[in-house]
Amino acid sequence: MDSKITEVSQMFDRFQASFMRKDYDTCDRLLSQLKVLLTEFKSLPPLFQETPNNIRELTLARHIYEYAVILSVKIEDQDAFERDFFQLKPYYTDARRLPPSAEEYPILGLNLLRLLVQNRIAEFHTELELLPPNALENPCIKHAVELEQSFMEGAYNCVLSARQTVPHETYVYFMDLLAKTVRDEIAGCSEKTYDSLSIKDARQMLLFSSDQELSEYIKEERTEWEIKNGFVFFQRSKESTPCKEIPSLQLINQTLSYARELERIV
């Protein structure tokens, strides 16, 4: 088994070298091979069998899966992130014999941020409750918690400005996605509330720093909006979504009919 550990270690060294060169295609290929090799270690989850090299095997596997999570962020693959995170999680929760990892809280905070971006708020709070109380003092966890509070309170300025103070460089990808989520939320509310807004007001409401950014956003994300004479018109968006008439009289008649049938049964 020592030879197998050596083989995995050497391949992982090649993976890290490719990662440093930002050769992510090679990293992805090597990672697939590493995951297959790891299945031969009986000391890993879910078996956790006692072996002569179990600590070494567990530590190596944890390090590989930590890199896998970070790689998924680099290649912007949220599905891969979720798969790799759940493969990594038992090393944090169940492998108590291992020394703490420096990457644990940055990755746990990154997962919280992912759940927030995907609007999976219930899962966000479930994951948060599984953390020990002292974890809330960690900057990575604290950052995600404060973001969620700002998001729920509608303090969108705080959400967008938080990108400048991320506790780890891997957070930038999800922060950019969160900024888009925030702007889409504001845009959806704006087009339902107003027929039009001045370019200045629209820019301020959508938290852009220039008219050019606003124009590009409309061109790429809100093609149904129209910029004309210094205003942004939402009317075409409203016209493109016809209102459905609620058949209120039919619903009332059905309800009364159900009530009469219930009377006969009783």
Could you please describe the fold and organization of this structure?
This protein has about 270 residues and is mainly alpha-helical. It is about 65% helix and about 5% strand. The protein has 13 helices and three strands. A three-stranded antiparallel sheet has the order 1-3-2. A hairpin with a 2-residue loop joins strand 2 (about 225-230) and strand 3. The model has no long low-confidence stretch (mean pLDDT about 90).
Low-confidence runs of at least 5 consecutive residues: none
Shape descriptor reads extended
The number of strands is 3
Kindly report the average pLDDT value: 90
Order of helices and strands: HHHHHHHHHEHHEEHH
Strand order of the largest sheet: 1-3-2
Radius of gyration: 26 Å
Write the layout of secondary structure elements.
Layout: H1 2-20, H2 24-38, H3 54-74, H4 78-93, H5 104-117, H6 121-129, H7 139-153, H8 156-161, H9 171-193, E1 196-198, H10 199-205, H11 211-221, E2 226-228, E3 231-233, H12 235-239, H13 248-265
Antiparallel strand pairs: 1-3, 2-3
Helix pairs in contact: 1-2, 1-3, 2-3, 3-4, 4-5, 5-6, 5-7, 5-9
Task: Jot down its keywords.
mainly alpha, 3% strand
Describe what is shown at a glance:
The protein is mostly helical and about 270 residues long. It is built from 13 helices and three strands; from the N terminus they run H-H-H-H-H-H-H-H-H-E-H-H-E-E-H-H.
